[in-house]
Amino acid sequence: MVATRTVFLQLVKRDVRVALRQRSELLNPLIFLLIVVSLFPLGVGPGPDILARIAPGVIWVSALLSAMLGLDRLFRDDFRDGALEQMMLLPVSMEISVLAKIAVHWLLTALPVLLIAPLLALLLNLPTHAWGVLWLTLLFGTPVLSAAGAIGVALTVSLNKGGALLSLLLLPLLIPLLIFATAAVEAAVSGLSAAGPLALIGAFMVLSLTLAPFAVKAGLRVSVN
Amino acid sequence: MWRWLHPYAKSEATFALNQKLLPWFLIPGLVLTIVGVIWGLAYAPPDYQQGESYRIIFVHVPSAIWSMGFYVSMAIAGLIALVWQIRTAELALLAIAPVGAVLTFISLFTGAVWGQPMWGTWWVWDARLTSQLILLFLYLGVMALYVAFEDERAGGKAASILALVGVINIPIIHYSVYWWNTLHQQSTITKVITRFESPSIAPEMLWPLLVNIFAMMALAGALVIMRLNNELLRREVHRPWAQAILNQEKKENQNAV
Amino acid sequence: MRNLSALRRVDPVGKIEGNVPENMTTQPTASPQSADHKTLLAATDLASVRGERTLFADLNMHVRAGEVWQIEGPNGAGKSSLLRILTGLLAPQAGQIQFRGEPIQNCREAFHAELLFIGHKAGVKAELTAIENLEFYAAVQGQPISAPPYELLEKVGLVGLEDIPAQRLSAGQQRRIALARLWLTDAPLWILDEPFTALDVSGIALLEARFAEHVAAGGAIILTSHQAVNSAHFPLQRVQLRYQY
Question: GO molecular-function annotation terms (chain A) (predicted)?
Fold first, then answer.
């Protein structure tokens, strides 16, 4: 029997390799994020006060939308070329393979966002003392995006017109994340402790990473039909 | 072997059970709706703060309560469909979804209508209204996911999974919206409404409200049963049992004419 | 739908399976519980319904070590569905599948450790080279390859193409990448959906030789094919699926 760890690492290695060979798809969500964030000052005016006030919300809403953009890559190609079926036939628990897919998605979409987060904060005039908390909300919150996103993609991967449907399915589920993430950053901006909302986001992360694989597994079984 | 192969016998049994249950929902539903509406609109005393406009609660509160209740029952149907692979449970889920969505819409609509005289605006991002709006999105997601699948069985299963994921999230969404609302509280007028639903409600208002809550449940339940039976007939229109029922109904209609 | 003779298995040994009622079986087929230890995969009373249409019903198969089973039938008769049901990817409408006497849903991981399935879509990643694809599948099956398998690539006719992403190769060459997995596995049970598609004559001969080798070593193969399979080197059982309305 092959070790679970081997399968997990092999899946991660293969998918990262595949993604690195389609760089444009990798960059699209990031460019989208940068553009949306730089459109806001043009839309609401360049006043530093108003920018600082809306910064947490803008950054998080843009991060949510850009995550939606890259989401269907999670299973779409695998579904088309049969790799998904092969994944379901691996001699390990399917939850492990699903977690590997979620991990790859996080590495490829969330990690770049974490890296450019300071730039976004700078563009929107977010006070520097809140940068750390913004970064922490992204660190704990983006795995929730990947995990919940995997559920939505698993359910819609066999449909041709999954895009708009995917956002209808997912965005309501992600509202708590948005609320607490922006609340944490706002608290940090006004000099209050952000520990409460941050702890809740951490709880969401644990909850979604433990429960989502089961839903994803069930969803994939429906889609591979 | 063929009897076990196709669960048609089961559908027939479900249909028969539904036909028996229907009057128990439909008749109390209709009677209590009439009683509750007349009682609530004509006989209950006006509110000392809100005057007559509070009477919309006799529609608003029942629909709001059951919009949530029907979502939970829909998720339970989804759980049964997934765990025991029962097709009639999938159909039940699909029968419940539009009814629940309409209840949610009614509660949103009446909330907006009520908000106009109370707050001076049709929409405020009040915690209740916001979480109802999200609930509406959840219902729409389940319905949209189902119709997106060509294969009805696959669509039913996918909708079941989504309903279950949603029901786990509902409490989280609900409480986070409340918390968000108190964090951003700008209008204090919502507190007037919130206080209204505390147990201090006068019994002359409480009783017609309870009647209306029960009436709404029975009526919506009857609608679900009727939808489920229609769906059962539609899916199995070529089966002998469905043919027999349809022929009988045709005959009855002719006799009635 | 009530056509009970819609399915028939013609067996060279004279056993009749398929959906013939059990009391008509000329040679009492062992029930799965008491199946001889050579039975790898036993399917009992399988049925599949797609939409409103019954693809097949009461299908029985006992796949023993050393056997090759060919599923035949016209397009849409349910060949691929049957294969996917046998792998556990799809749930049958009715019936049970046992691997070494154990229902597959109870031993999924052990079953899949001994199964190699190559479907219609073969699971070859278009962005990766032949070697990268093969290395991945060898590693997740627990037989990692340390050095690039040049000998194998030469054998399956992919030599010189090992650094080219699969998407730039022809359909037949991509198929060869997937089929090269047959030389890298020690899984006893192979389930192959149209393995000969897009292969040229030499490719087919190569594959048939590998089949003979696998069967001689005590393996078993279930496959679908539109072509006649050269059964000179192994016993071939056939399952006929008919298109049913």
Answer: heme transmembrane transporter activity
Q: Which of B82, B145, B169 sits opposite A173 (nearest CB)?
A: B169
Q: pLDDT tens digit string along C19-57?
A: 433 333 333 344 444 445 678 899 988 888 877 778 888
Q: Does A27 touch chain B (CB under 8 A)?
A: no
**Which chains does chain B touch, 3 or more C-beta pairs < 8 A?**
A, C
Give A93→chain C minimum CA distance, Å.
7
What residue spans define the domains of chain A? 4-224
Our CA-based measurement puts residue A215 at a distance from the nearest CA of chain B, in whole angstroms, of 7
Closest CB to A1 among C87, C90, C113? C113
On whether any CB of chain A is under 8 Å from the CB of B60, the answer is no
Do the interacting molecules here have an ipTM over 0.90? no
* pTM of the predicted protein model: 0.85
Average confidence score pLDDT of chain B: 82
What stretch of H or E contains A107? none
pLDDT per residue as tens digits for the range C52-81: 778 888 888 899 888 899 988 888 888 888
